[in-house]
Amino acid sequence: QVQLVESGGGLVQAGGSLRLSCAASRLTFSGHSMAWFRQAPGTDREVVAAVTWSLIRTYYGDSVTGRFTISRDNAKSTVYLQMNSLKPEDTAVYYCAASPQLSGVTLLESTNYLYWGQGTQVTVSS
Fold first, then answer.
1. C-alpha dihedral over 22, 85, 10, 61, to 10 degrees?
2. Which three-class secondary structure state does DSSP give residue 37?
């Protein structure tokens, strides 16, 4: 059974940084595109960042462009999300997601992802 386990969430002041990690097991990590989504109470789940399985492309949500960076280490089967200049509106549960060989606009839709982690809470205080 595929497992995605997120870590690194927590409470941080506005302007601070956090680094989320998502460790994958029981899947061919290098063959899967990876993404981070987030969901705040009362809102829809939205894409934060995604990286293709081939490492050729990365994508970012409009609200995080220039502040967040997604990366992956295929040797460790881990995807990361470096979050800088955090804002209170970044407060949400952050989810890691994986799916085989997504590319282009399909990376941005949560319904295209087969596997999900349990989520990690990020809270940014003002």
1. -50
2. strand
